[in-house]
What does this fold into?
Amino acid sequence: MSLLELDDVSTGYGSFRALFNVSLKIEEGEKYAIIGANGAGKSTLLRSICGLLRTENDKIHFDGKPIGQLSPHKRVGLGISYVPEGRWVFPSLTVNENLLVGAHSRRSGMWTVDKVYELFPLLSRLRQRQALSLSGGEQQALAIGRGLMANPRLLLLDEVSLGLAPVVVEKIYEAMPAITSSGTTVLLVEQDVGQAMKFADRVACMLKGRLVLEGVSGEMEHDQIIAAYFGV
Amino acid sequence: MVWANDIIQGILVGGLYALFAAGLSLVFGVMRLVNLAHGDFSILAAYIALAIVGSLNINPFYTLILVMIVMAVFGYVIQRGLFNFAMDAGPMQAILATFGIAIIIQNLLLEGFTANSKGLDAGRIENASIKISDQVVIGWFPLITIIVSVLVLVGLQFFLGRTRMGRAFRATADNQRAAQLMGIDNRHLYGVAMALALAIVAIGGVFIGIRTTFVPSAGPIRLIFAYEAVIIGGLGSLWGTLVGGIVLGVAQVLGDHVNQGWGMLVGHLVFLAILAFRPQGLFAKQAQ
It folds into this structure.
């Protein structure tokens, strides 16, 4: 049984359809990346997995259970943690408080405030700072740390590198092995194809709301990816 | 010294206004709900106390815990059962829902208790006072009121600053959707916020019922005082509500001193002046 199964998911915002018949299986412990251009439906896909968008109940299964109609806070309880595009840190809370709120669901596991500071040493000296005053990279690290505080089985990362300087992106990706080595499954959405290929076991490419290419990251042809990415 | 006495009396009245304002500010801060029934909830609390006093024949002070519990349960139920759905429909629908509840409460109280003014008799404590000098006299009851309101604010500050649920409140106030992604059940949290707000306004309602008389239609004017206190103090600032209440209370007492009946007018004028010259309030949070 796969950890996450999407079966023919179609969804959208109001009358606008952003996803068309997407089916996907992700195994426990896997590193999976979804690439695609702006507006390809990558974020929409993650939002329907974390519950910000609802689908028909049995279109999405997590650990064998149908979750398509569950509210986001219940999905967190099951072990799905979503790190949103744009980070959404709590601006008036301190860094430390942001992490504590991340643990609201009280799921037990290896991730604690101290472990997150170990993972992102840059956050450690900012504990008492308001999240509002953090740089983009610091906010991204905080958002990932906060997501880990729920001790997820499945971590959804949305556009990690968006708007960040390359050196900062490198730093954040350096933390990934520590996250995945604990057995956490990671589903990553990324516009940076190189970064995604380097990180993931398997990669899928989206185009105009459809999954158009899926494969093992080492075995995919460059031309094939380009074609799927741009739809040429 | 006469003025000093007025100012002291105004500060003490401010404690009462802070009790009204704190719950209002909490509800607006956490869920952006403009609760037009807040004043009527305080009147409802006073009538519940009256009913308990009538049937058990005890001092209204002792009804306080019971009234707070009843109001808290009522708050949770009405939030989960009505306001949450109204808020889903939109902010305007939510305001209208609270407005409708305000009218229903006023009319039910009118049915049940008539339009005659009622009061809660707390016995000797109502008139007992400490004489500081010939002109300055502090009533025990107003003093208790302001002490209680300070304790309530300290308690709220502790709750918001140091507890898991309090952090969830602030996270939800910052970003409701992100809070849900942390596993926070916002519908339950809104229920808790309303329960807390109504427990606090219950104290205010019982205290003002002891201090003066009340009628079923007195809610809206209290709502206005509460809003004025919140805005004078600064939206989102806990201690600002106390300062706002005090500024309003002092303005009213001084106004009344100049001319009986000017109190309310002067209070409104101070409020308008704050709106005109410092619209963010005296203690507004740093702009974000």
Remarks:
- The interface with chain B takes residues 50-52, 71-73, 76-77, 81-82, 84, 88-93, 97-98, 100-102, 104-105, 107, 132, 146, 150 of chain A (CB under 8 Å).
- Residues 4-230 of chain A form a domain with the Rossmann fold fold (CATH 3.40.50.300).
